[in-house]
Amino acid sequence: MREGQTAVIHRADYQAPAYWIDTVELCFDLDPAKTRVLNRMRIRRNPDVPPQPLKLDGDELNLARVLVNGQGTSFKMEGGRLVLENLPEGSEPFELEIFTTCCPAKNSKLMGLYVSNDSFFTQCEAEGFRRITYFLDRPDVMASYTVLLRADKRKYPVLLSNGNLVDHGDLEDGRHFAKWVDPFRKPCYLFALVAGQLVAREQKIVARNGKEHLLQVFVRPGDLDKTEHAMNSLMASVAWDEARFGLPLDLERFMIVATSDFNMGAMENKGLNIFNTKYVLANQATATDTDFGNIESVVGHEYFHNWTGNRVTCRDWFQLSLKEGLTVFRDQEFSQDLAGEASARAVKRIEDVRVLRTAQFPEDAGPMAHPVRPDQYLEINNFYTVTVYEKGAEVVRMMQTLVGREGFERGMTLYFQRHDGHAVTCDDFAQAIADANTQSPLYEKLGQFKRWYSQAGTPRVRAVPQWEAGTGTWRLQLSQSNPPTPGQADKQPQVIPIAWGLIGQDGRELASGMHVLTEAHDTLVVENLASEPVPSLLRGFSAPVILDFDYSDGQLLALLEHDTDPFNRWEAAQRLAVRSALAAIHHGGEVTLDAHFVEAMRHILRHPTLDSAFKELVLTLPAETYIAEQLDVVDPQHVHAVRESMRQQLATALQPDWEAAYEANKDSGAYSPDPVSSGRRALAGLALTHLCIAARLSSDTVWPGKAYQRFKDASNMTDRFNALSALVVGGSDLARPALQKFHAMFKDEALVLDKWFALQAGAPDRGGNVLPAVKQLMQHPDFNVRNPNRARSLIFSYCSANPGAFHRADAAGYVFWSDRVMELDAINPQVAARLARALDRWRKLAEPMRGAAREAIARVAAKPDLSNDVREVVTRALA
Ligand code: PHE
Ligand code: ZN
């Protein structure tokens, strides 16, 4: 193993720390080129562990001095760690003082202490604190923090850290200081500091118990007019967690700070959440409805971590889903509860399932497949995945399904009674939910249920019906299986809650229930039926599985028309569309959409009472990646062509209906991002896209003209961007001038420029034109590969979100990908490793893409000084 390379870490090797750190006093002299950090800790030996040297983690630090109880001491360095052997014996605490320096200005990894737009920010999860000072950088070491910040007052007027501000004042030489004390013990990954020229929107709130709290959203001075929605979302989050789970805000002050340089979405540091600007800043002129919705859920997510993550944290990083799966579940519930009506809740559920199936299912079937609670990793940053987050949330959701909503709330209460203030495991969580519900199937089957945490892969449920007309008996034979995944050849049956209903010939619901499948094979029996029913299975997507049922087209049309479960109505349309796509792909030829399907779509589009948001979901064809997952061998360009052809047929066949939908939805009134009006804008946007597609086929210029007009006159970003997108997707000549105008209008709005780059990189490929355009945009003065949002907007939008343009037979897309992965790896390994995942599914590709993709991955793997992050991804891909 070379210097700096670490070994694979195994969950089974967990050992309690040999020392506890009880208190930490940190003193920072902030300077971009050389920040000085004095770290004074009270440490004691862990009496439960045999005596051994203290080994502190560190990364890219310059060590100046180490003192034990005020005296110099001997130490050595071991693979980046600071090792202290001659420590006081016995159980008495001792004081360890470590003085280091680091260089925030040169920190392009954005882990640890870094500079963004002349302000200081920190990011410590998962293992960034060791880039600030030597420490036991592991979540089960929880300490009380006191933080003293010192900096130039003019350049850094605002100085923030976790907890409460207890002192502040001026120093000599134009410097000032602020002292913060966090009243709660915490693991070091929740430490944060911010220093810079920032302004805050402030809001005082009074909690149920009458206590007052100060909420603050800090941004750069020009951005205050984009903070109202984030503040509203934060207030709603505080109220929701109190109302739904009885969990109050436990701090006098709660701060959110936005930065435009951030690797992820946001971070739940105690009392001082740091956010990517993308998930804070919004007003109607610059942000779309989707942005508004994302801000609501990310603000909620980070706030909810205060209890699920911070008050109760993870024992080790293998337990990441303990906080992430649970907190995603909570933010999903929050957004559903805010959406209000049943139909709006269903829309949110469909959107969440769409993410799961288009992103998590492929992950679970590919080389990076891992259990919700992984067993090993080389680099923990690679395990902030859709499996840990979204599948983890589905596992929590199934628990709620099995114990009921009230039972789940009881379980949460027990969880906090048992574990508040501690670092625990996924097992502890499941045990608490079960123990609070001893009459439930979860309690009865807990051991088996926990296979959801240990087994990777998406289970398949096969359901075969049998109808006995004579006795009116309907039987459903159920069987489950789970395909092998890397390192897991054999799987055991899992606990699969299947919500079901039966629809009669007349479209009425005959029966419904919940069947908990626990065996490999089982039968569900319903008696006394007058005629053969159409089953609606896995309602609301009651388990994260693939359901195989040989529906006839007629049955799916019946479900689309009559099912009382909105999720399965949508699902019926998706199944019909996938079926058409697969038939066309297998027969190598053109798609001709089934006339019944087209009529059903027309019926939905014209429906007098269905929500616009729901119509938009039903009328949107399944994603190319979702279609590709149903195939053994994938030609992404062919998949793209087939889906495009289906879209063109819907555009042409339903033209008058799209026109009617556009006219009926195009005016959504004074802007508000609520579900009803955003649904109207979404459907108007989808209609406009189809009208522009149809116009291209018939060389009509009226609709592109209308789209251009709307693009110019729109009073909000959603309508403006949808119109621009319609022109780009429709391949109109007006797309070019519109893109130019858009750039000129928003040249000072970084988040809008991200959209501008992303739209072009994600455009439908016309004769291989997207890659040259992307390469050209890399030269654009506004492009900056060091800014993660900008890199994602151009490079990821092409490599990860535009399969039809990326998977070129000449391999040029893959060469571009490998160049970018290597370029980014030298700057920011986390971002590079995410991009590296764009070729996860290379083994499914048809030749010549398959061979070319493997070569490109091998090219990256052969690079000598690769980060652990990228090395792990490409090694697994080739294994
Ligand atoms: N813990 C953060 C969240 O999910 C995500 C994150 C992980 C952010 C690592 C930064 C670094 O809310
Ligand atoms: Zn989270």
Automatic annotation (TrEMBL):
Q: Which residues form the Peptidase M1 alanyl aminopeptidase Ig-like fold domain?
A: 457-549
Please give the cofactor(s) recorded in the UniProt entry for this protein. Zn(2+)
Task: Identify its protein family.
Answer: Belongs to the peptidase M1 family.
Q: Which reaction does it catalyse?
A: Release of an N-terminal amino acid, Xaa-|-Yaa- from a peptide, amide or arylamide. Xaa is preferably Ala, but may be most amino acids including Pro (slow action). When a terminal hydrophobic residue is followed by a prolyl residue, the two may be released as an intact Xaa-Pro dipeptide
Record-annotated membrane-spanning stretches: none
Quote one Gene Ontology molecular function term: zinc ion binding
Q: What is its EC number?
A: 3.4.11.2
**Domain (Peptidase M1 membrane alanine aminopeptidase) ranges:** 230-438
Q: What is this protein called?
A: Aminopeptidase N
